[in-house]
Design goal:
This protein has 389 residues and is of the alpha+beta class. The protein folds into three domains: 13-80, no CATH class; 108-213; 215-389, Heat Shock Protein 90 (2-Layer Sandwich). The protein contains eleven helices and ten strands. The chain has helices spanning 13-16, 21-24, 27-43, 82-163, 168-177, 179-210, 223-234, 263-287, 289-296, 330-335, 353-364; strands spanning 47-55, 58-68, 74-80, 219-221, 248-253, 259-261, 304-312, 316-323, 368-374, 378-386. The strands form three sheets. It has a five-stranded mixed beta sheet with strand order 5-7-8-10-9. A three-stranded antiparallel beta sheet has the order 1-2-3, sandwiched between helices. Strands 4-6 form a two-stranded antiparallel sheet. The protein binds adenosine-5'-triphosphate and magnesium ion. The site of adenosine-5'-triphosphate (ATP) has 23 residues, from α8 and α11. Keywords: Coiled coil, Kinase, Phosphoprotein, Transferase, Two-component regulatory system. It holds the Pfam family PAS_4. Residues 127-389 form the Histidine kinase domain.
């Protein structure tokens, strides 16, 4: 039992002689030794054991080789391996630190990719919006003049018709081009063109609202405008396809004051939650295609996203986004805000969407982000943020 070369002895040799192992060693250690001795006697092979013993103030590690000598005697040689153990511990610690650093690096990298993606998307959207804005305003502005000039020209034609005393040639031409119809139709065409350009102007405005991605300070923002601009960007995914029925969006907007926030980042949160909701509705529909079709006529299972906003406690606003999609098990729900957690096929999801959204809401805006979900029934994300900072 004497550690060779160790500065301290567990027990002086005289203390050990003639005593049973359980009287000398701590009970767990003694059991371990007895087992190993039995094994050595049984197999006739050298058995290696590692154990620690309290010596003075410290725990000292030993490695012992137990070899059978005769049928009921063994020889045991032990040596102090504390230094090696210490190094192993250090190595384990270093490996853990490295793994942690690696995890942090991957997280930062993914965050940067997401931020970069959003920022490029924002720049692209802003660029497109800018390019469309000028020509559409030009067309829209000129439509009013065109309307006025057309009225004048039609007036002149009318006058000429009266003054010409219905000359035959003129009459023939009028009939040929169906002047009566043109007179009715031109104002209608102009008016529908105006509706069209007005719609494009609204879209451009939404794109501009959505692309306020790089705004680097808190600004008072109309939350409904932000949500609408995000819905606008995702518009194509709400439409009916051969596989999926159209997604219905229900907006239940309360009266909200302007909210101080980073609007670009908040748009990113809306985008992540809405994109997940659409994915969840698609998944549900694919898994339950027949059920959905059977119930569609009754309107029971129309894929729906409901957005509700309200003021709570006067200092806070609440934005709830719910879907009646695939839903989440408790197990998934627990992990939804974890970095890299995804249930989507490789290449589709990075698993960073909700992690980043959680950080934006809690850390950047000092708010709360909660998730309520029932499998096969749907999911609701509830954002609460302070109105002022
Ligand atoms: N509305 C929802 N309904 C059902 N499951 C959801 C919903 N929102 C999130 N989840 C689950 O949480 C997981 C994590 O979502 P998260 O947005 O963080 O990552 P992702 O959508 O998989 O990938 P990405 O980083 O591209 O957004 C999803 O893979 C999905 O399983
Ligand atoms: Mg997502």
């Amino acid at each position: 039992m004497a550690p060779s070369g160790a500065p301290l002895l567990y027990q002086p040799p005289a203390e050990l002689l003639g005593r049973k192992i359980h009287e000398v060693l701590p009970s767990a250690c003694a059991d371990y030794f007895l087992n190993s001795i039995q094994q050595a006697l049984l197999t006739k092979k050298t058995v290696k054991v590692e154990y620690s013993l309290p010596i003075g103030e410290q725990e000292v590690w030993f490695e012992a080789n137990i070899a059978s000598m005769t049928e009921n005697t063994v020889v045991c040689v032990a040596r102090d391996i504390s230094e090696r153990k210490q190094m192993e511990d250090q190595l384990r610690q270093q490996t853990e630190n490295l793994a942690q650093t690696l995890q942090e690096l991957r997280q930062t990298q993914a965050q940067m990719i997401q931020a970069e993606k959003m920022s490029s998307l924002g720049q692209l959207v802003a660029g497109v919006a800018h390019e469309i804005n000028n020509p559409v305003n030009f067309i829209h502005g000129n439509l009013s003049h065109l309307e006025e000039y057309t009225q004048d020209l039609l007036g002149i034609i009318n006058l000429y018709q009266q003054l010409s005393g219905n000359k035959l040639e003129f009459q023939a031409l009028c009939e040929e081009i169906d002047l009566e119809y043109i007179q009715e139709d031109v104002p209608r065409i102009l008016s529908s063109m105006k509706v069209g350009t007005q719609r494009i102007r609204q879209i451009v405005l939404s794109l501009r609202t959505f692309s306020r991605i790089d705004e680097a300070e808190f600004k008072a923002v109309d939350i409904h405008e932000s949500i609408d601009s995000t819905l606008m960007v995702l518009q194509h995914r709400f439409q009916e396809t051969t596989k999926l029925p159209a997604i219905q969006v229900i907006k239940d907007y309360g009266t909200l004051p302007l909210v101080e926030c980073y609007s670009g980042e908040l748009n990113q949160v809306f985008m992540n939650i809405l994109a997940n909701a659409i994915d969840a509705l698609e998944e549900w529909t694919i898994e339950n295609a027949q059920l959905r079709i059977d119930n569609l006529t009754s309107g029971l299972l129309t894929p729906t996203i409901a957005i509700r906003t309200s003021v709570i406690d006067s200092g806070w606003v609440k934005i709830a986004i719910a879907d009646n999609g695939i839903g989440m098990s408790e197990q998934i729900q627990k992990q939804v805000f974890n970095p890299f957690f995804t249930n989507k096929p490789v290449g589709k999801g990075t698993g960073m969407g909700m992690f980043i959204s959680y950080q934006i809401i809690t850390e950047t805006h000092g708010g709360k982000l909660e998730c309520h979900s029932t499998p096969a029934a749907g999911t609701e994300f509830v954002i609460t943020i302070p109105i002022q900072h």
